[in-house]
Amino acid sequence: MREAGQRDVVFTPFMLRTRDVLDGEDRSTPLRLRPSCLHPVARATDEWFYLRARSEQVIAEANAMLRGRAAPVDLLDEYGTGELGFVLRRGDRSARIRLGQAGRQAWVELQRPYVADARPVEPEDPAVLEDLVVELLADTRAHQEGRP
After folding, report:
1. According to the CATH classification, is domain 33-144 in 3.40.50?
2. Spatial separation of the C-alpha atoms in residues 119 and 35, rounded to whole Å
3. Could you give the CA distance from residue 58 to residue 83 in angstroms, rounded to a whole number?
4. Using alpha carbons only, what angle is made at residue 12 by residues 10 and 14, rounded to the nearest 5 degrees?
5. Measured between alpha carbons, how far is 67 from 71 in angstroms, rounded to an integer?
6. Domain ranges of the chain
7. What pTM was computed for the model?
8. Helices marked H in the chain
């Protein structure tokens, strides 16, 4: 952990955490996930939309710290798939958050191709997005260094 400088007061705690990851510190934490559960479509859509909106802020903060040091994290909206979905991507690592629907019920689902979840899972709360971005940063760094 580096000493706080005068400029650090303008950074959010997540921005400082991102910088620490870039400096080689292990700032990852296990993602707080729970099994995806059915909700009325409106409620599940609201949860998904809030995660999508919060992702913009989280990615902007991470990319502000990545500028000039590493490739940015991308936020990609899916279209033409018949469902709501977006992808957080950095290098060859990605995580997808989608809204699944069956009749009048729907669920939010986090999909990470590099993790085998036994059943569909969703973030416990929007703060998990910060942990997810750190996971993408750390996994990409480890992959580039030849670690699994």
Report:
1. no
2. 7
3. 23
4. 150
5. 8
6. 33-144
7. 0.86
8. 13-22, 41-66, 128-144
